[in-house]
Amino acid sequence: MKIGVYPGSFDPVTFGHLDIIERSAKLFDKLYIGVLNNSAKKSMFTAEERVELIREVTKDITNVVVDSFDGLLAEYVEVIGADAIVRGLRAVTDFEYEIQIAQMNHALNPRVDTIYLTTSTQYAYLSSSIVKEIAMYHGDVTKFVPEAVAYKLKEKANKR
User: Where does the Cytidyltransferase-like domain start and stop, copy by copy (predicted)?
Assistant: First the structure.
């Protein structure tokens, strides 16, 4: 069984993330979506909320498992028995950062490789940070995130 892991903060999950999830789920028997629980990072959604949102929007993809982790990705990969790490690339600037992370992960765990999927062109401009900013100014985010996520973003924005 080939197992992949697509790690990220997913704060919030966007259509760009879903594009990578759907495409990479076709490459593996099982695909873990590893939601990073990084206490040093100020997230809009808790790790638990992000896990639940991703479970909701991926419920029809039968080989996807949504989980959270903290610590090193190279160690998480070993715990779940993943064969590869999946990363999405929007632009050359993403690659410069991602190649360093991939090389570090490979140095920490030589058994696992990183594969890259380029984001579909209609999502190349999309980032969670931009979506959060639009939501905080009460803008319409329905073009960028699934309906369940847009609803939760609106809730959060109204509380601030």
Answer: 5-133
* Bridge partners, 30 (sequence order): 3
28 is in an annotated binding site: no
Q: Which CATH superfamily does the domain covering 3-124 fall into? A: HUPs (3.40.50.620)
State the catalytic residues: 17, 41, 90, 128
Write the pLDDT tens digit of every residue in 49-106.
999 999 999 999 999 999 999 999 999 999 999 999 999 999 888 888 999 999 999 9
Between the two ends of the chain, the Cα-to-Cα distance in Å is 45
Q: Is 111 part of any known ligand binding site?
A: no
Tell me whether residue 9 is annotated as binding.
yes
CA distance 111 to 40: 28
